DNA sequence: TTAGAATTGACAAAAAAATAACAAAATGTT
DNA sequence: AACATTTTGTTATTTTTTTGTCAATTCTAA
């Protein structure tokens, strides 16, 4: 019932956790109290074996002959993902994507507070997006000196992102959520998660064309 | 020099292609004419072996003792990704994310034309975003009857997405780029590419916390 | 209370992916 | 022109990931 000690967990497993979390959240909404790995596997379209093995990386949350208690499992995965802890985030780049992210209420629910938005455009500075103030990028240093920031969300053009990322790193921010198409070249003491939308779209295009061509034959 | 016949290419390889494409584009901008798998591997932070093996899934684009011709390789990967072909896309959901995507010029450069935006909110209908008209969701059927649509980009709330996805599927659209946090339950004749932003952010949070805790010890 | 059914956790096997190794071919150098 | 160097394409090996199996445990129902 307690957590396994220090067996390095693969990133593939980690990336599945939010999905489990979503499905469990849905089960709670449906007022389902218990679930077997078999039934969950059918809902999620993966194997029961994988679910059991994934969950066992973190400890035995289930019970033989019974399955998993939905609410308990939800809480446990939430703890693993750190939903109970809060992160302080800033958005750099008040363009369309920055705007969209600033307006996402979901992030706050998941423990991510957006405490400021930064941009180089003086016309944007001083405005407010979803109750969050827009500051000039030059005020980033003094802002970070006053208020701790865990994560910088970068929605700046690809041409600027390396410069901004260096600045952010120099200020001691340890996490970057990068929306620019450019890969960041940074040291190993900073965690970067990329969201390359164009890449994703191109993969969709490839798969779609493959499917369409395949059905012609 | 010609393409390998019908050896099924894994999705892991496909997902790396856009990244190769980006790096080659950068090399062209730097006016670099040739590159070895070794040098590219150093730039990209992966192994040379992987690059050679990935590229060989599609054919021998390199030359022993020389390496790869940057421009040629760029063109070949472009062809594989179908950059030369065009896709007709619509955005469903004219909220913040829909707006942001409608304003991305990059998609058009990559062969993805956004030909219409749809929303249920009558206040949005009739407006124009980045020269693209916003229509009422009820006009989707007649729109699709007049104009072929390959891909639907879904930026609607999670609560609506299944309903919208069914409608889209019924109209014969074969590709979905899904931005809602909900997984879509659809038949196998439709290709779905998910962009689960919350999932990505939670993974960043996990990795960041792991790093911070790890350095404490 | 007992027997049968269900289901996990752990381990084994299989499959997939990544990396390494190397012969073959082209380049560059003297 | 000869030879050392570079570098690919391909095959072999290793590692990682996924899937399958089953004893042990708990539940359920008579």
Q: Any chance you could write out the topology, listing elements then pairs?
A:
The structure is a homodimer of 217-residue chains.
Chain A: H1 11-29, E1 34-35, H2 37-44, H3 48-56, E2 62-63, E3 67-69, H4 70-81, E4 87-92, H5 96-102, H6 105-109, E5 112-119, E6 128-129, E7 132-136, H7 140-146, E8 151-154, H8 158-170, E9 175-178, E10 191-194, H9 197-216
Helix pairs in contact in A: 1-4, 2-3
The structure holds a DNA duplex (30 and 30 nucleotides).
Give a brief rundown of this model:
The structure is a homodimer of 217-residue chains. The first copy, chain A, is of the alpha/beta class and 217 residues long.
Notes on the structure:
The structure is a homodimer of 217-residue chains. Chain A has two domains: 71 residues, Orthogonal Bundle (Arc Repressor Mutant, subunit A); 113 residues, NAD(P)-binding Rossmann-like Domain (Rossmann fold). The first copy, chain A, is 46% helix and 18% strand. The first copy, chain A, has nine helices and ten strands. The first copy, chain A, has a seven-stranded mixed beta sheet with strand order 6-7-5-4-8-9-10, sandwiched between helices. Chain A is globular and about 60 Å long. The structure holds a DNA duplex (30 and 30 nucleotides).
Described by its quaternary structure, the protein is homodimer
Strand order of the largest sheet of chain A: 6-7-5-4-8-9-10
Structural class label of chain A: alpha/beta
Approximately how much beta-strand content do the residues of chain A carry? 15-25%
**What is the overall silhouette of chain A?**
globular
Interface with most residues = A-B, 56 and 56 residues
Give the helix level of chain A as a range of percent: 40-55%
Which value, in Å, is the CA radius of gyration of chain A?
21 Å
Spans of chain A of at least 5 consecutive residues whose pLDDT stays below 50 are: 1-5
* Total count of strands of chain A: 10
* CATH-defined topology of the largest domain in chain A: Rossmann fold
Quick check: average pLDDT of chain A? 93
Overall tally of structural domains of chain A = 2
CATH superfamily of the largest domain in chain A: NAD(P)-binding Rossmann-like Domain
Count of DSSP-assigned helices of chain A: 9
State the end-to-end CA separation of chain A.
53 Å
Largest sheet of chain A: 7 strands, mixed
- Look at the structure and give the CATH class of the largest domain in chain A: Alpha Beta
Order of helices and strands of chain A: HEHHEEHEHHEEEHEHEEH
